[in-house]
Design brief:
Distance between the termini: 56 Å
Strand content: under 5%
Structural class: mainly alpha
Mean pLDDT: 80
Number of helices: 12
Helix content: 55-70%
Largest sheet: none
Radius of gyration: 28 Å
Low-confidence stretches: 147-153
Order of helices and strands: HHHHHHHHHHHH
């Protein structure tokens, strides 16, 4: 196997299989032409081959350029949007931490333990925000959205970015959406310790039915995570798309239908919580929950489709 064969093989391993044929033919032809030119100028064939391959550089880097695959996690086309969104979302992290700290102090936990729980919660939320936001933008980078530069050849005026489209999704809307989702998740866990009622043994009575753990709650958290990703992707793209509206509809239905079913079958609110609160005094709670779920879901779905269709017509 010649140096050229080894170089071509090393390059192709980083390129999708469906592109191997064309890229291999072009790469070999380019190498052969360059080697032939040096040989004609008096350089020995082996030395010419080594020189040409050395000039081509790292085959992995060349493969990235040929395949249009970025070698950075987040490139210049998306970096500023990623940084602005991330730094703004991180302001949400202290909120769940402060709630955990306050609940701990109300429950009579040692001050040091309550402070540590609050710090740990804030740090965990911040880590999750940073991970998922960065992951979404990294995926967008690798799928070509927002890229303003290519990786091969010299820069020319043809590489000037198109005029940036008007952004229909504001940073404030995105932060509000993700922040609300984070607070909802925090509430799911906080209601386990703080509901306003406790048993005779002093144990807190959760608001949600304990039978929802872990299956139903895990499914709920997964839907919330997808909703957060949809919000971040929508911000990164600057507008709603039909695909995002469709995904938003799916998550809305997957959340609303089971939640309404659980509520109407007395499996959403903890019966012990209703008994502790006086039973009939909270008879309005389940109907209000059902109405809220339906109204919020319908509004969210219609809003997504309205913005997506408006952006499509623009």
């Amino acid at each position: 196997m010649t140096l050229t064969d080894r170089y071509v093989a090393a390059t192709l391993r980083r390129i999708p299989a469906d592109q191997h044929g064309d890229i291999e033919a072009e790469l070999r032809a380019s190498i052969d032409d360059a080697v032939e030119a040096q040989v004609e100028s008096g350089v020995a064939p082996e030395a010419a081959e080594t020189s040409v391959l050395t000039d081509l550089g790292d085959p992995d880097r060349l493969a990235a350029g040929l395949a249009g695959r970025p070698l950075q996690l987040i490139g210049p086309g998306l970096y500023l949007d990623w940084w602005r969104l991330l730094t703004t979302l991180l302001w949400i992290a202290p909120v769940p931490g402060a709630v955990v700290l306050t609940v701990g102090l109300i429950d009579g936990d040692p001050v040091g333990s309550a402070i540590w729980s609050g710090i740990w919660t804030a740090a965990s939320v911040a880590l999750q925000i940073a991970f998922w936001t960065t992951l979404v933008f990294a995926v967008l980078e690798r799928t070509g959205h927002g890229r303003t530069t290519d990786l091969t050849g010299p820069w020319t005026v043809d590489r000037l970015p198109e005029q940036r489209e008007r952004r229909d999704v504001s940073l404030g809307d995105t932060v509000a959406s993700v922040g609300l989702l984070a607070l909802v998740v925090a509430a799911v866990f906080l209601q386990l310790r703080f509901s306003g009622f406790s048993t005779a043994d002093g144990e807190p009575i959760p608001v949600l039915d304990p039978g929802l753990w872990p299956g139903w709650v895990a499914g709920f958290l997964a839907i919330v995570a997808v909703d957060a990703v949809v919000a971040i992707v929508t911000y990164a793209r600057g507008r709603w798309t039909v695909g995002l509206a469709a995904l938003n509809t799916v998550t809305g239905v997957l959340f609303a239908v089971p939640a309404v079913w659980l509520a109407t079958h007395d499996r959403l609110v903890n019966p012990a919580f209703l008994d502790a609160s006086g039973g009939d005094r909270l008879s309005w709670l389940v109907p209000v929950i059902v109405a809220t779920i339906v109204v919020v879901t319908v509004w969210d779905v219609v809003d997504g489709w309205t913005k997506a269709l408006r952006a499509r017509r623009a």
